[in-house]
Amino acid sequence: QFKIFHAVVSCSMPAEEIESVSLPVGWKSYISPEGRKYYVNTSTKGTTDVCICVCQLHGAMEMEESFDAEGSFDDVSCLSPQSPGSTSPARRQNKEKEIKETKITINCVTFPVSMSAPEQQLLKPSEWSYCDYFWADKRDPQGATVSGFEVLLQKQLKGKQMQKEMAEFIRERIKIEEEYAKNLSKLSMFPMAAQEEGTLGEAWAQLKKSLADEAEVHLKFSSKLQCEVEKPLLTFRGDNFKKDMKKYDHHIADLRKQLVSRYAAVEKARKALADRQKDLEVKTQQLEIKLSNKTEEDIKKARRKSTQAGDDLMRCVDLYNQGQSKWFEEMVTTSLELERLEVERVETIQQLLRQYTTLRHETDMFNQSTMEPVDQLLQSVDPAKDRELWVKEHKTGDLRPVDMDI
Amino acid sequence: QFKIFHAVVSCSMPAEEIESVSLPVGWKSYISPEGRKYYVNTSTKGTTDVCICVCQLHGAMEMEESFDAEGSFDDVSCLSPQSPGSTSPARRQNKEKEIKETKITINCVTFPVSMSAPEQQLLKPSEWSYCDYFWADKRDPQGATVSGFEVLLQKQLKGKQMQKEMAEFIRERIKIEEEYAKNLSKLSMFPMAAQEEGTLGEAWAQLKKSLADEAEVHLKFSSKLQCEVEKPLLTFRGDNFKKDMKKYDHHIADLRKQLVSRYAAVEKARKALADRQKDLEVKTQQLEIKLSNKTEEDIKKARRKSTQAGDDLMRCVDLYNQGQSKWFEEMVTTSLELERLEVERVETIQQLLRQYTTLRHETDMFNQSTMEPVDQLLQSVDPAKDRELWVKEHKTGDLRPVDMDI
């Protein structure tokens, strides 16, 4: 089942050329039961499922009904060389234009269809720029229409969410470090083996103290994590960011809405012109077969109205094109801004995460240095010295016993 | 108030020499009201408070009563040149000996008193060896007598307690490390910013993983702490240690007890001799003043008994001296063993604490290396690449809108 989105196609290529048209990726050609050739975009990634009917007689068609790919085309008001009398004056008018390219309007935005010259160059080749790849609408998994710009916007909002989550992660690390520091600090004050004396006692006391030094290192780490990583992650896009995104969103959406109403005006004007032309045709035919007593005045009037309708159409198409240009410019400007913001986001986060690893390196180094005084004192441990100190304090008497005399 | 510990002094120095005797540290000389000179050890650090009376007529005295430093000496059975008739035959006997040194028996152990030649050299000079400084008993704060050996033994038992407490400290550290590792490991699995993609997403994922790596480093640390520090601290003196200490304790104590009983025998023999001598003296006097009709037979009998008593005394003194020698040898051997054990203890603990610092150094280094892959991936963060990846996946269409034709 394909849904057709107000596809209007103007085609002026001869039948043979249609055969040899190289289709854009994802487009397939089918033949209807009536022998009509039509083209279907079967690509699902970010493109519209649309069925266009390219009339082999270069006619313009409107297809507003949905139909099965292999079903009947009875409802499709589509011209074909095999259907006599289906060549309308409107179609004939278009034929005279002899336009070289194929265009299609989807959701009120007009795109080229074929890949023939002049081929569109990317605005920023090799850059995979936002301004080059988000022109069409797409459908989300629920079936709703999503504009390309919307996709870009969501990406930015998700980026802000990512920042927030990274900051939460850092916060959790900070809590872990503070707990660790607290435990080390407590333990350093426990009285185990406090009675050890001498050089060994000194080394042991320093070893215990080193836990308090380690605790300090980890507290410093957690404190710097907060200032230099967590806080910036939370704040480098301020609250203004969401407001700015909303502004862009509304602005672009408004321009699209305007395009929709201008397109409606075009359609209306087109229909009015067709009616006027048909009226003129009928009246001319009637004159020729002397069907009525219409004077040349009536025909002149009909012709005037027809011309006026033609002018109206031109004006509407003009306004539509202006509106589309405006939207186009805004799209390019804004999508490039979003692109810049995304580069900034990635680079800022890269910076902050590098700061994280720097702080980790620092911490490990400071931690190592807490061992230095311990190593030194352990080096100085001297059992002989400790014995001297202890003996001096605790000796009971150095006179050795002698034989008793009688 | 000084307590006197069965001090028996034999002295054979002329009065003048006594005056010029250089006293050991802490000894002071006093003159009693009767004009007797006596010497008091006022040192409180590990020496006995004893009052000895050195008779200026080189007599031996027993002082068993306690008295005030400035009080009367009426109770002291102490000879002096001023007290006629107090020169007993026993004392005369000692006088004949003309022994050069002054000795004192305290708690049944016999020591030299003066510092005169031949001066005692330390058994192990400059080493502050246990075998040189723990000969005398001391008094603990509660007033109980403690032998020098007991002090050495307590030191060893305390050393075992110190090990145990150090091991407890290491155990607490192990618990802290395991807690820290557990927290880091948990956090590394939290889903924060899991949706970040591209090169930034990779770097972020590695950063999160690095916490699990850190956790492993700390777990390894705690595991090695247990094997290489805690366990050895707990086990390097086995349970046999306390048994060995008890054995030494009992053995040395037994030898002291033996000395006490042999000393009692000496005292008893000495008294018996004095009695026999007095008996002989009385009987001889009686013969001279024809006080009784005692025959020469009686005197011969009395003389024989006196000689026998003299032999008994010699035997007892011999046994005593042998007993003291035995104790002396055991003291030297065992105290040197305790000294060796203490050196071993200090060196072993030094070793184990060095192992602790080595493990800490290792840990900090391993911890640093967990940052390497993170640093590398952060280096590779590329906003342009990430844009390309993301655009390729999420683009909606690269055909730009064109003007609608009329």
UniProtKB/TrEMBL annotation, chains A, B:
Region: Disordered, residue numbers: 72-97
GO annotation (BP), single: clathrin coat assembly
Keywords (A to Z) from UniProt: Coiled coil
Alphabetized Pfam families for the sequence: FCH, WW, WW_FCH_linker
SMART domains to which the protein is assigned, alphabetical: FCH (SM00055)
F-BAR domain segment(s): 126-386
Gene Ontology cellular component terms for the protein in this record: clathrin-coated pit; clathrin-coated vesicle; plasma membrane
Stretches assigned to the WW domain: 21-48
Entry superkingdom: Eukaryota
Positions in coiled-coil regions: 270-297
Biased composition (Polar residues): 79-91
SUPFAM superfamilies per UniProt: BAR/IMD domain-like, WW domain
Protein known as: Growth arrest-specific 7a
